[in-house]
Input
Amino acid sequence: MPRSARARSSVRSIRAFSLRWTNRPRNSTNRDVNQTAPGLWRTLLASRRGASALEFAVVGALAVTLMFGVMEAARYQFTQQALRSVAGEAARIAMLRGSANMAARRPPCEGLSGALAATTFSAPFLDNALLSVQLSDCATQGAMTLVTVTVTQPFAFVMLLIRPESFELTETTRSFFN
Output
């Protein structure tokens, strides 16, 4: 057979095979549909279809969890800092009241115990109805007076995975004045 006839013959056979392969019925009983279990697993493990979706599901879930965890930690730190600010402001008010008592020739600890009205403090993201500001342990030694200020606020994480129950954040400050 001449060379060109052989080439034409092989082209015809390839074309016939590709037509048979693309036009075959999908429900045919061939090896692709009725594979044995080990062969099916081998085919599934060798396939790369859906690999990107699976990788995104794993990495995306971790990224979203990390993002919400960072946001929760930031909210916790922000609330703690707001409590520190309120405690500092309450200590300043205690010093001013104690100094006013001393200027009026009254004992410096007069009126410096118990709760302060939380509405006098403005701190972002703190609920004034739940904020508790207590003055305690007022003592005078010589010319120095010491007052302890305790500020508490209930706090709960939004993501229940971190700590599901609510708890109280507490900030304590001691104020000296003379």
Remarks:
- The chain has one domain: 52-177.
- The longest helix spans residues 51-103.
- Residues 52-177 form one domain.
